[in-house]
Amino acid sequence: MSTGSYIFKRFLAGIPLLFIVSVLSFAIIRLNVTINAINLSYALFLTIAFVLFYLIIKIKNWYFIGIPALVLLIYCSWFLASFSILPFDVVFKNQFIALMASFLFLSVFMLLYWSQALVSKSKNLPIIVLGIALLLFSFKAASIFPYNIPVPPIILKSGDPLADLRFNPSISQEVLKAEEKRLGINEPWHIQYLLWFKGLMHGDLGVTQQNQRVSSVIQKPILNTLLLSLSTLFMTWFIAIPLGIWAALNRNKLIDKLLAIFTSCGMSVPTFVLAVLGLLFALQSQILPIGGLTSLNHYELNMFEKTIDIAKHLILPTTILTLVSIAGLQRQVRANLLDVLRQEYIRTAIAKGLPTNIVIYKHALRNAINPLITIFGFEFASLLSGAALTETILSYPGLGALTLEAARKLDVNLTMVTLMMGAVMLVVGNLMADLLLKFSDPRIQFEEG
């Protein structure tokens, strides 16, 4: 498979991931449910859906789904286009229109996966889509034909996401009503999600509980977190790879055992414990600054002094996160290199008289580095969210601390944007790791399927 086709395939595969993350996150944040009975029909219709799924997956050719999906898309689009602009409440109160809208949405997904299957010759993803479709229809059938058993009321309700705005005397009623309308506070959570998604598609991220635009609030924390994460990533790999090579070349010697003890301590100590210890050290010694990214007189300094000032504020959080990250990566480098050094072609190269440095760094390390690239992809995915507790303890103005505070206050707009950025980074990180693997080892081919 060509690189372009592979990127297109991964792009399509990332769409349902982002959709599922956004739906689940929004449902958790805005869940308002009172359970008075248990519907046993769900078990029956889920069993029927499972049997149908098992029977249908026996079909060998999955490309037939493209034609009915296209017909369904055209019909549902024509039917809904015959009406004027339909607000969300009308769509979900009218059963037939809601059904047509669901079919339209399903047909779009089926076409996306059909196009991906056409490019990648994959059968797995259409099967996943079919399973999700049968699951949704089983839920719908269970709600239409319920068989309920009464239970004591179970209340699952979130708070008011506009609580701070309501008690802020500087916020006008017009602003409050506009935000209520945009989020659909009094509507069911799925309609609230669609309203939020509609705003997202129009580039409107909404306002925070302090009546600030989300787009402006997240700018500086994103940059601060990226700066901290990239410095941690650089220091971790800059230190861990040489230590891993050193330990592998001195296997079972004193330095290898000392590094094993060091990494065991690093893997067993939680990050927040090191953050508290680092905070106490900074407070007692007054050597390193804590809190913020700059000093009070930062804007009075020249460019060189500003750089030094930022670097001083980065030392403590970067050191803490690096100490935690080094342990696992150093052990991985050591294990990979030892495994490669046992291979026959390495022994052959040594037997032929090649210099040790060339054998280790040109042949062995190049093959041992491949699993580390996959790890790099996951670490890249956590750049915006991997330092939340450390940022909170050290009062670092990053995205992690902002997300925790937003989730605590049920700030829907701010929380959803930060969660979605984490999901996007996961997709991008995995794609980047695959492309780097292809670049580092030309023998690797993108498989179809």
Description of the structure:
The chain has 449 residues and is mostly helical. The chain has a domain at 217-440: MetI-like fold (Orthogonal Bundle), CATH 1.10.3720.10. Helix 1 (3-29) runs antiparallel to helix 20, helix 2 (41-56) packs antiparallel against helix 6 (124-144) and helix 3 (66-81) runs antiparallel to helix 5. It contains 20 helices and two strands.
Number of helices: 20
CATH superfamily of the domain at 217-440: MetI-like
Structural class: mainly alpha
Beta-strand fraction estimate: under 5%
Number of strands: 2
Supply Rg.
27 Å
Order of helices and strands: HEHHHHHEHHHHHHHHHHHHHH
Might you state the CATH topology name of the domain at 217-440?
Answer: MetI-like fold
Unreliable segments of 5+ consecutive residues: none
The CA-CA distance between the termini, in Å, is 10 Å
Which shape, going by the Cα principal axes? globular
CATH class of the domain at 217-440: Mainly Alpha
Features:
MetI-like fold; about 450 residues; two-stranded antiparallel sheet; mainly alpha; 2 strands
Task: Furnish the topology, listing elements before pairings.
Layout: H1 3-29, E1 32-39, H2 41-56, H3 66-81, H4 88-93, H5 95-120, H6 124-144, E2 148-157, H7 163-166, H8 173-183, H9 189-201, H10 214-217, H11 219-249, H12 254-268, H13 271-285, H14 303-341, H15 344-351, H16 356-368, H17 370-381, H18 388-393, H19 399-408, H20 412-440
Antiparallel strand pairs: 1-2
